[in-house]
TrEMBL record:
Class of the enzyme per the UniProt entry, highest EC level: hydrolase
Highest taxon in the source lineage: Bacteria
GO MF terms, alphabetically ordered: metal ion binding; S-adenosylhomocysteine deaminase activity
Amidohydrolase-related domain span: 59-397
Protein name, as recorded: Cytosine deaminase
PANTHER family: AMIDOHYDROLASE-RELATED DOMAIN-CONTAINING PROTEIN, AMINOHYDROLASE SSNA-RELATED
Keywords per UniProt: Hydrolase, Metal-binding, Zinc
EC number: 3.5.4.28
């Protein structure tokens, strides 16, 4: 038997979330060359390993997958003037601050934000970076560099805005670009960073921001470019009832109709929020295989509503979780989003409607499907990426939780990962980020935040 690079052994339970949804009491998982090379139970022979990680008293899950984020927004967390408005008020208040973004700000916000996610068991994250001020530099490449330094799997999207206030949109002129500039940079970033291999650490998607901040022409041309480059599409859609009203007034169409009109009704697409689709629209999204990034904390803090998660899943739409930047209760814990998704599911449809296993599946397999990586990430099976989280079930929080480790994991919190492993390498160990540069990055982050939040 080949020597493994990492062996996680003697777990209280391994929840593989594989095709058979196997759960292995007393189990172990081996990672070699960045992928899962073997799994077994207490009676199966374990391979020799260069590094052994004792998981006694712990639940082991696949690494969690974050399908929607705005990393730069952690530079304006809990910004007092923006705390009491709805989505449109919140955006208008913060756009002038975000107009000060540059490569340093993009790098440090990504570094700190991805570290925060890793502490919550997240091994793969997307990012929707749609603010590109003139002269700011290559913000996406700055984010990619931060992810590579930390060693996390990263799917940034080349976001964009092309309609400013003068065009009937919300953002100021200083943060919008014209369609040709956006599309040219989108293609450049795909050619520079997009890795199509099954174990890719970096992939790029294209992501015009929303119906109220980009032109119809840009939406159509982006869909055509994504098909040509064979990359995925992402945008905000059906987040609020204000958006419904905007689309009806501007396009004479509801948001889902508009999505279809511009060529986005495809399984290449995943959408952020999807709070307000009608029953027929849910069926259309599911039939087309359009994914949804469920952002429960953000939807609550902005008063957006309760997304129809169960209905979308039943219709066949992949559903993952998103922490959604500073709008998401100003935290970025994917564990928190999983727990909140579970609670919202019970609130919407009754106590039996959403279990911890349902929420875990959304946080792993669902997210993988949204990102076009089903079978590659979001599950523990031989050949899948060696991404996993180890969660301690011991101590005061778990006293008395003896009968079901998965339910205990999501009910008895708050919880952070004890270890977070990406491609067989520990990004978090003993509850702390392993990279030695965290304190330095936090100091830079504070300086950059102060610069952005100074009087506009």
């Amino acid at each position: 038997m080949q020597t493994a690079e990492l062996l996680v052994h003697d777990a209280e339970l391994i929840a593989t979330v594989d095709d058979a949804r196997r759960e292995i009491a007393g189990g172990w998982v081996a990672v070699t060359d960045g992928v899962v090379s073997a799994l077994g139970g207490p009676g199966d022979p374990q391979p020799a390993a260069a590094r052994r990680l004792d998981a006694r008293g712990c639940l082991v899950t696949p690494g969690l997958v974050n399908t929607h984020h705005h990393l730069y927004q952690n530079l304006t967390r809990a910004y007092a003037p923006a705390l009491t408005g709805g989505l449109f008020d919140w955006l208008v208040t913060l756009y002038p601050l975000w107009a000060r973004l540059d490569e340093e700000a993009a790098h440090v916000s990504a570094w700190v934000g991805l570290a925060e996610l890793a502490l919550s068991g997240c091994t793969t994250s997307t990012d929707h970076s749609y603010v590109h001020p003139r002269g700011a530099g290559d913000l996406i490449s700055a984010e990619v560099a931060a992810a590579r330094e930390l060693g996390v799997r990263f799917h940034p999207t080349r976001g964009s805005m092309s309609l400013s206030v003068k065009d009937g949109g919300l953002p100021p002129d200083s943060v919008v670009q014209d369609d040709d500039e956006i599309l040219a940079d989108s293609q450049r970033l795909v050619e520079l960073h997009h890795d199509r291999s099954a174990t890719a650490m970096t992939r790029i998607a294209l992501a015009p921001c929303s119906p109220f901040s980009v032109s119809t022409a840009l939406m159509r041309r982006t869909a055509e470019l994504a098909a040509t480059l064979d990359v995925r599409l992402h945008t905000h859609l059906a987040e609020t009832q204000d958006e419904d009203a905007f689309c009806l007034q501007t396009f004479g169409r509801r948001p889902v109709d508009y999505l279809d009109d511009v060529g986005w009704m495809t399984d290449r697409t995943w959408l952020a929020h999807v709070v307000w689709p009608s029953e027929p629209e849910i069926a259309r999204l599911g039939a087309a295989g359009v994914g949804a990034a469920h952002c429960p904390s953000s939807n609550m803090i902005l008063g957006s509503g309760l997304a129809p998660v169960a209905e979308l899943r039943a219709a066949g739409a992949p559903v993952g979780l998103g922490v959604d930047g500073s709008a998401s209760a100003d935290s970025a814990s994917l564990w928190l989003e999983a727990r909140t998704a579970m609670l919202q599911g019970k609130l919407r449809h009754g106590a039996a409607a959403m279990s911890a296993r349902d929420a875990l599946e959304i946080a792993t397999r669902g997210g993988a499907a949204c990102l076009g990586r089903a079978g590659e990430i979001g599950q523990l099976s031989v050949g899948a990426c060696g991404d996993l989280a180890v969660w301690s079930l011991e101590g005061v929080r778990f006293a008395g939780a003896l009968s079901d480790p998965v339910e205990a994991w999501l009910r008895c919190g708050p919880v952070a990962a004890r270890e977070t492993v990406v491609a067989g390498r520990l990004v978090v160990a003993d509850g702390a980020v392993t990279h030695p540069g965290l304190d330095e990055q936090l100091a830079v982050h504070r300086r950059v935040s102060q610069r952005l939040q100074s009087a506009v």
